[in-house]
Amino acid sequence: MSEPGAERVLHWPGDLGWLDRAEPPALRDRVALIAFWTAGDVQSLELLQTLAFLALRFAGRPLCVVAVHSARPPDAADEQRVAAAARRLGARVPVAVDRGGIAFRVLGGARWPSLALVDTGGRVRYRGAGLPDRERLTAALDVLLRDARGEPEELWTARPALSAEDPARLVAPTGLAFDALRELLWIADGPAHRLCGVEPDTGVVRHLIGCGRAGSADGDASLAAFAHPAGLCCHRGRLHVADLGNHLVRTLDVDAFGVFTACGIGRSSSDVVGGQPGLVQGLCAPTAISGHGDDELVVATAGSHQLWTLSLRDGRAHAWCGTGRAGGADGIRYDATCQQPTGVAVQDDRCAFVDALSGAVRLAELGSEMVYTVIPPGGAGGLRTPVAVAWLGRDLLVADAAAATVSRVDIGGRTIARVAGPEHGLVEPRAVAVAPDAARAWVADSGAGAVFELALGGGLRVRRLELADPHSSAAARPPAPPQTLAAQAAVTLCFPLPIPAGERLHDAARPHAWVRSAAPGGPLAPFAAPLRIDGTWGSLCGVPTAAEGRGEVVLTARYATCADPAAVVHVQEVAARFEVEFVPQGGGVLEVQVE
What CA–CA distances, in Å, run from 83 to 77, 99, 213, 380? Predict the structure, then answer.
């Protein structure tokens, strides 16, 4: 790197394609923060979040914050895919595509992500690689902006809303796990910050986990908050989540309908050794997770280029493989290195994982503590960016996000056979899951915003899994007579809970409800959990945001009943659809008849 201030940048270098504007932002009389990222790099998520924070922190001041996408190799950039990835990752700043890689060579660091800081005179004051420290970068920008007199920069406003209100719509699925105990397919919908439990045969959404807003709140599953959840695994009757944006491992107790944090401190950690109890042990970008034995999880932490183990018995987490530096060295686990492992799958004492940065498929023997490469970088089959892996019998099923393919890897022969690709609708596969009998597999495709089912027995058959809205049964019924409510005023929605003769509400099963409404102002969800039970009535409270006019509300509630002293639990469901007229003055209680 040259001496700070020696280089000058008066114009944008190279051939940049701007995704959100016709003309590039002006550099004259502005401080410029230019960050380089690449799709598929897990650290890009945190980088773009930092850029959004800084852009909002210095809004109204002459600071130009730009995210430049630099592909590997440079000619691999598809601008439509880059734009989709930027939106999914929540970019709020101008985004450019570095055609040919010239800008990265001029201003970038040695690796991704990297950034350059340019003062108002065009002098490069800092250039380096790695994720920036927010506090130090904020302080540096404060100093450089003291004498800046240029015009402020506009944020990227052409961003589509990523709504999590529609249960039957996936924004960009990022994780999968098959729950053999409950016959459910669990889907992580990363940009929507939620999880879905789906019947794999019908596509009916049976569980929605998470409030749909980024956060880290534990507790009731309908109110819990995630941030870009990624890898999933079902182990010992629970669902475990690699909560990438929060740098946490979370656990869903499906029966109690509750979420709790198993490991992590809520921010990126530089610890590459571990050994602390889960709630004080930091992690760096957990992307994948798999169960091992009776009481252990193996976690791929792509940010620190490692595999970690998390004990479910005492809650302690340790680095198992990788020194914390990127590399592809095999050997004893203490000396082996990884290059951004983003997929992991355990079978008995064998742990398969993929290195997204290098394109290698690796295998770790948990018993002998040896690590070796099955498919080397650039090996047979030409894996470009493998991001997910699952066991398919004694073979592996690997998803390659950049090549839009799913391939079968023969470990013994170290060969690759393509199973599915773009001709089947794949765009950017991010996760794979396999049924216990290995006759079916599922692929979560972020680019297509869909999950595909692969029938592997007797010839390949590919089916796009169409999700079914749990409200659909209620929506098909004719609406009840219109009821009048006050616009933008507090209201309580009450409805009876039919209980079968000889049964009572089950005390341990938490009831929950979905409410979807359409109003003059557009889609909204005016009523919020928790669902309260008073005798044989349920109620939800909220403040509808609707303006005056006529709207529609669709309600579905689920609860459990049981008979004394029998232990058998019966899940009950009620549904209703009704019209509402919002007026300046109206009632505060909405009583609903249900079926």
Answer: 10, 14, 22, 31
Q: Which residues pair with 542 in a beta bridge?
A: 491, 527
| Distance separating alpha carbons of residues 80 and 95, to the nearest angstrom | 12
Residue 115 in this model has a pLDDT that exceeds 60:
yes
Helices (H), 426-492: 472-475
- Tokens 């890689």 locate to 101
pLDDT confidence of residue 559: 80
Angle, CA 283 vertex, CA 323 and CA 268 arms, to 5°: 105
- What sign has the CA pseudo-torsion 303, 117, 157, 24? negative
User: What residues pair up with 396 in beta bridges, in sequence order?
Assistant: 391, 409
**Token pair belonging to 78:** 């598809």
What CA–CA distance (Å, rounded) separates 517 from 556? 12
Which residues are CB-contacts of 449 (< 8 A; sequence separation ≥ 6)? Answer: 169, 170, 171, 172, 173
Distances (CA, A) of 548 to 41, 135, 523, 581, 587: 46, 46, 14, 7, 14
In this structure, what are the phi and psi dihedrals at residue 325, rounded to the nearest 5 degrees?
-110, 145
Are 260 and 218 in contact, with CB atoms under 8 Å apart? yes
Query: Mean pLDDT over residues 181-194, rounded?
Result: 93
How many CA atoms, within 13 angstroms, populate the side-chain half-sphere of residue 562?
10
* Beta-bridge mates of residue 407: 398, 418
d(CA 88, CA 91): 8
Percent of the chain with pLDDT over 90: 45
Mean pLDDT throughout 388-406? 95
DSSP 453: E
How many of the other CB atoms lie within 10 Å of CB of 398? 29
Task: Write the CB contacts of 78 (distance below 8 Å, at least 6 apart in sequence).
Answer: none
- Residue 289 above 80 pLDDT? yes
Q: Which of 395, 339, 330, 389 is nearest to 365 (CA)?
A: 330
> What single letter denotes the amino acid at residue 305?
H
**Cα–Cα distance, 381 to 359 (Å, whole number):** 11
Please count the CA atoms within 13 angstroms of the CA of 142 that sit on its side-chain side.
Answer: 7
Cis peptide leading into residue 530 (ω within 30°): yes
Q: Which residue has the tokens 């079916």?
A: 440
In the block, residue with structure tokens 């490991």: 263
The three-state secondary structure class of 385 is coil
Q: What is the SS3 assignment for 164?
A: coil
- Range list of β-strands (E), 190-315: 194-198, 205-209, 219-220, 229-235, 238-243, 248-253, 258-263, 274-277, 286-292, 296-301, 306-311
Q: How, if at all, do strands 350-355 and 341-347 pair?
A: antiparallel
Instruction: Confirm if 121 and 76 have CB atoms less than 8 A apart.
Output: no
Check: CB of residue 536 under 8 Å from CB of residue 497. yes
Q: Output the average pLDDT for the chain.
A: 85
Q: Which of 247-261, 540-554, 564-578 has the highest mean pLDDT?
A: 247-261
- Name the residue type at position 402: A
Neighbours of 281 (CB within 10 A): 21
Are 264 and 247 a contacting pair, CB within 8 Å?
Answer: yes
Q: How far is the CA of 565 from the CAs of 11, 61, 503, 507, 560, in angstroms?
A: 78, 69, 10, 13, 15
CA distances from 461 to 48, 177, 348, 419, 464 (A): 38, 20, 29, 10, 10
pLDDT for residue 81 = 79
Cα–Cα–Cα angle for 31, 148, 93, nearest 5°? 35
